[in-house]
Structure formats: C-alpha cells, structure tokens
Amino acid sequence: MRSPVEDVVDSSVSLAGLGLSRRDLLARGSALVGGLGLLPWLGGCATLPVEPPTPTAELPWEELRRSLSGPLLRPGDRAYLARALPWNRRYARTRPAGIAVCQKAEDVQASLRWARKYEVPLVVRSGGHSYAGYSTTEGLMLDVSSMNGVSFDPATGRATVGGGARNANVYASLRPLQRAVTHGRCLGVGVAGLVLGGGIGFNMRLHGLTCDGLVATEMVLASGERVICDRDRNADLFWASRGAGGGNYGIHTSFTFETFSVPEITVFSLQWTTALEDVFGTLLALLPRTPNRLGAKVSVNITPDGALSVNLLGQLVGPPSELRSLLEPAYAVAKPTTEQVSVKPYWDGQTFLSEEGCPEYSHESSRFGYKDLPSAAVATIFSYLRRWPGTSIGADWKSFLVGGTVNDKGRDETAYVHRGAIHLTSIEVEWNAEDAPDRVAENLAWQAEFHEAMGAYTSNEAFQNFIDPVQKDYLRAYYAENLEQLVEIKRRHDPGNVFRYPQSIPVRL
Ligand SMILES: Cc1cc2nc3c(=O)[nH]c(=O)nc-3n(C[C@H](O)[C@H](O)[C@H](O)COP(=O)(O)OP(=O)(O)OC[C@H]3O[C@@H](n4cnc5c(N)ncnc54)[C@H](O)[C@@H]3O)c2cc1C
Q: For the whole model, what pTM was predicted?
C-alpha cells in the first residue's frame, strides 16, 4: 500500500529523476535501455508509464559496494528510505536504485567511476532540500551527507566544511568560536546547495552572500580527477562554483570559507493584522534604505482560515532603540499585533531565528526586484492572496532584503549574477498529503498567474537556489548574461554532460 506522502506527486518526477526531458526520453529511450540495462520500461517509449518500476536490474552492485568505505543502500535496506526521501515530498516517489553513502572523496570517485562505467544516471545529494527534487534519481544517488566535518584554522580565521555538511553542522562548530559565515535559517539545508547557488541569509547585506565568503573548494570532476579550485587554481570552476555550481560541474567534497566574528544582535519577529496594505507598503519602501547592519524578510501570509498578516523577521547589529527608530514609519501606521524583540549573543539569536525546515509539499517561484515596488504591486499582492484557492497549510508572498555588500561585486565577478537587486521576492504555496490533487493543481495555476502578474514590477531574474521546475526561460532567469560563459566552462569540464538534471547547465545552448 502506498503511504499518503506518495499520493500527491508531480507527474514529471520520473523524468526529473533521470535528468532528462520528455523529448530526450523519446529520442533516447531505446538507446538507454540497451546501454543501461536497467530501464526496460523505456523500450519503444511511445507512451510514458506514470509509475515506472524501481530499476533493480542486473547491475554489478557488489562491485560498487566493495569499492566504498561506507554502505551501499538498495531498496528494502533498513536505512534506505530515510536517505532516499527528499525534503520536498512532491518528489518522494522517485527512488534511487542505489544510494552510495560516501564518507570521503575516494568514495565519491569510486561511485562516479562505477556509474560512468555502467552508464547509470547519477545525482549528488547533501541536504536534500532542492525545491524541485533535483537531488533525486532513479539511478545512483551519491549521498555525501556523512562528509559533514567542520574544521577551523585560527591562524587564517578560515573554516573548512565537508561537502555534505548542513547548516546545523556549521552552527554547532562555529558557535563556540563566536564566528560565522553568511548562512540560512533552516538547519537541514546543505551548505553545498546553499553556497553553490549563491546563498542568502540575514548577514548578507553586511558580509555578502555565502559564496562571497568562499575562498576554495575541492571537487571531483566528471573525469574522476580531484581538483582544488580557488582564485589561482581552476579559476573558471571557482567562478562557476559561486552561484552556478549545484549539480552542474562536479561533486564538491569540501568548501573553505572566510569567517567573521559575531557581535551581540537584536533579533525580531513582528506581526501586523491591521492596516495591512499600508503597513506592508511602508515596510517595502523603508527597508532598502536601512543600514546594511539590518537583515530582514517581510511577508504577507495567508492561513487556511483566510486570515492575512504582515510579518517581519530579522536581525540588526545594533540596539532595539535603533530598530524601533528605523521601523517608526510602520509603527506610525499601526502597532504590531505581536512583537518579539530581544538582544542576544549572535548564536542565541540564530536559535530564535532558525527553523527546523521539516519535509513538506511546496512550490516556490521567485523574482529579483531592482526597483522599489510601487503601490500597484502591493495591491496586486493582496488581490491575489485574497483569491488564494486554499490548502491545508498556507501561502505567502515574501521579500528578502538583499543589496548592501552583495551589490559591491559586479554582475560578472561571480556566476551569481543578480548584483544590484534590492529585493528577492517569492511566492510560496504549501500543502499536505490530504489536499486533493485537483485542489493542488488549482493552487499551482493560481501561483503561476500571480508570478506572471508580478513581472510588471520585478525583473525576470529568478533565484537559482529557489529552483523552480516551471520557471520560464530558466537558464536566463538564473544566470542572465553569465550563461554563455557557464556553458563554455561546462563544455570544458563535463563535455559528456555527466552531471545533469532537468534545469542543469547544458554543454551547448
Ligand atoms: C526550508 C528551506 C530553507 C532554505 N533557506 C535558504 C536560505 O536561507 N538561503 C538560501 O540561499 N537558500 C535557502 N534555501 C534554498 C537552498 O539553498 C537550496 O534548496 C539548496 O539547493 C539546497 O541545498 P541542499 O544541499 O540541501 O539540497 P540538495 O537537494 O542535496 O542539493 C541541491 C542541488 O545541489 C546539488 N548538490 C548537492 N550537494 C552537492 C555537492 N556536494 N556537489 C555538487 N552538487 C551538489 C544537488 O545535486 C542538487 O542539484 C532553502 C530551502 C529550503 C527547502
């Protein structure tokens, strides 16, 4: 019997897991059957089965098992399911034929060698939080999450983080040192996914993106070679790793970051339930003009009972009195309904701000904003949210305050191109397994229309870390004018397109 989590699943998952488009499959189906010997359902691929059988064929799994220092998990193994499931449960039905639990770079190399030898599609997973389930596959998953050590060099102030570390590992290691990097709020997000797509966090306006603090990374290339990338060595890959690296160029086995010391901060969580449009418009206008010491996310949320609220969450390197004076125009419109403001040592402040990030069903679509959002944008946001079709969980429109130090770099200095933006906006819908597929479809259609409507006020650039399976012209949206250079680097280092998924950087445009 299928579990409830398996019932509401995007029908594209079986293709997504292979890193192939439908057209690819139709064109290459029979060749793949011959080459892989593990996907018999592709033969004569006129129609695609909705639920392909888990591929279990006669691959020499023992050969792979013997070459690993960690376990190789197959469907049915006790530890298999926990590692197979992605954070976004929409994609939970795509299950790997095997999971190589890599404990060191040599395991990564051995897994890659084996997958290439037997032409098995592969993906790498660290935190498993890809919004689009792009670290799932029906081939071989290289699970690097056990490579999660963090070491600190007091002489340089640099921290080296394993390729599979999560935010939680970084928190735990840097907390006693009273140091930090720019990081997200969700404990389970992988540092690899975070930094390779840029990495936003409440420190970014003061210290830059996560990728701006990256000074070196070690990776295993498609050839199996293990290389260090920094400003002097493999500089092209180092450039690509700062904003376009996730799953595109190789498997990263470590990252070295500059760290910074952390002061006491004021953390805050404010909610308004009255004068919503006015408060929200006021916040949107004032936030980009605040000092870089402020990090914030402002959102309009709607709950299943139809209740709307405006929420402001963040941190200030400064006292509560300064926060109060920065937000005075919003207070003048309406007093928050709930207000939590406290001064804390930095890492205690992160405990206040962080979230577990439990697995869920969700879809997110983003747009970068380079200009202030006019009152017409505020009206559009409320108009759509008031027409939300509804799920059991909720929906929101949110804006992360970017800019500051993030915009000190030029658009082509790193692969992360969205320098100059002041807002990273996004529409999120969440649901659960009990919500009927029709209702989910209605929500996704509403979200797509809402996303389209916001194009009048924001750019067409989207955040590669909020990777969106239905994003139009996704390569341009994520990489804009840096795309051609990224494709050239791809061709240079992965000409056979070993590292691929539905929205990966191609070898040619
Ligand atoms: C709850 C939640 C909170 C989030 N908060 C933030 C935030 O605060 N800031 C922010 O910038 N983003 C945030 N994100 C987005 C997040 O950064 C991306 O989803 C990121 O890709 C997740 O990385 P991961 O390692 O957890 O995911 P995975 O699913 O493991 O990987 C994501 C992609 O990177 C590839 N990849 C993973 N590991 C490696 C590796 N070692 N080498 C090469 N490629 C690899 C995968 O194959 C996949 O394509 C959040 C996402 C969620 C779900």
A: 0.90
Looking at the CA of residue 164, tell me the nearest atom of ligand 1.
41
Ligand 1 centroid distance, CA of 135 (Å): 9
User: How far, in Å, CA of 404 to CA of 292, rounded?
Assistant: 6
Locus of tokens 């990030």: 357
Phi, psi for 265 (deg, rounded to 5)? -135, 160
Least Cα distance to 195 among 159, 155, 152 occurs for 159
Contacts of residue 130, Cβ cutoff 8 Å, sequence gap at least 6: 86, 87, 88, 136, 193, 246, 467
Please tell me the predicted confidence (pLDDT) of residue 49.
33
Closest Cα to atom 1 of ligand 1:
357
Measured CA to CA, the distance from residue 176 to residue 478 in angstroms comes to: 36
From 18, 90, 91, 135, the mutation candidate for ligand 1 (largest count of ligand atoms within 8 A of CB) is 135
112-146 CB burial, b ≥16 within 10 A, e <16: bebbeebbbbbbbbbbbbbbbbbbbbbbbbbbbbb
Q: Report the candidate in 313, 247, 305, 309 with the shortest Cα–Cα distance to residue 277.
A: 309
* Cα 240 to the center of its chain, rounded Å: 16
> What pLDDT shows up at residue 446?
98
Is the C-alpha dihedral spanning 66, 67, 71, 73 positive or negative?
negative
Q: What is the pLDDT of residue 27?
A: 29
Q: 364-421 pLDDT, tens per residue? A: 999 999 999 999 999 999 999 999 999 999 999 999 999 999 999 999 999 999 999 9
Residue nearest to atom 28 of ligand 1 (CA): 128
Where the chain has pLDDT below 70, the residues are: 1-57
Amino acid in position 221 = L
d(CA 105, CA 144): 9
**For residue 428, which of 388, 482, 401, 459 has the smallest C-alpha distance?**
388
Q: Are 447 and 362 in contact (CB under 8 A)?
A: no
pLDDT digits (tens, 9 = 90+) for 104-143: 999 999 999 999 999 999 999 999 999 999 999 999 999 9
Label residue 490 exposed, middle or buried (CB < 10 Å: 0-12, 13-18, 19+). buried
For residue 309, the cross-strand partners are 301
Q: What is the pLDDT of residue 219?
A: 98
CB-defined site of ligand 1, < 6 Å: 87, 123-131, 134-135, 144, 163, 184-186, 189-190, 192-194, 196-197, 199-201, 246-247, 251-252, 357, 465, 501
pLDDT at 57: 60
- List the strands of the sheet with 308-316, edge to edge: 338-345, 264-272, 308-316, 294-302, 394-401, 423-431, 361-369
- For ligand 1, the distance from its centroid to the CA atom of residue 1, given in whole angstroms, is 31
Which pLDDT does position 359 carry in this prediction? 83
188 alpha carbon to ligand 1 midpoint, in Å? 9
Name the CA dihedral angle for 147, 149, 153, 154, rounded to a multiple of 10 degrees: 160
By C-alpha distance, which of 185, 142, 509 is closest to 347? Answer: 185
